[in-house]
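Working notes for the structural subgroup meeting. M.R. asked for a predicted model of this chain before we commit to crystallization trials. I am recording the input and output together here so anyone reviewing the notebook later can reproduce the run.

Input as submitted:
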Amino acid sequence: MNFLRFEHLNLGCKNIDLSQKFYQTLFPDWYVRAEGIYNGSRWMHFGNDQFYLTLNDYSEQNRVHQAYESIGINHVGFVIKNGEAMQKLLDSEGIEYYTLTAPETKHRIYVNDPDGNEIELVEYQPDYALR
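Returned structure, recorded in token form:
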């Protein structure tokens, strides 16, 4: 029982600024926790006090993972407070998404970030408790 919490996800990005803008749109309260240069490449920790994304400059590389078609992470899920408000935000920003349903969720919204990483934005039913 040594696990405390999930802290961060490390992402390679074609354009860190574009990725930061995308995630800032979804999560306006996120901020740059730290940033710098490592081995000649830019990196950024972007998130809040509990969780962050490490965004790395891989502008010269190409994506090789195909979600749901190869080994690797297929999507990352974020719990949100208000799915209707998120859909309105995505619509107003012109960000494409699709939705799915499940008994335990009020909203399941799927969107791809600028590098093709699929993100699930989920709002659970008020009476649903994680077990």
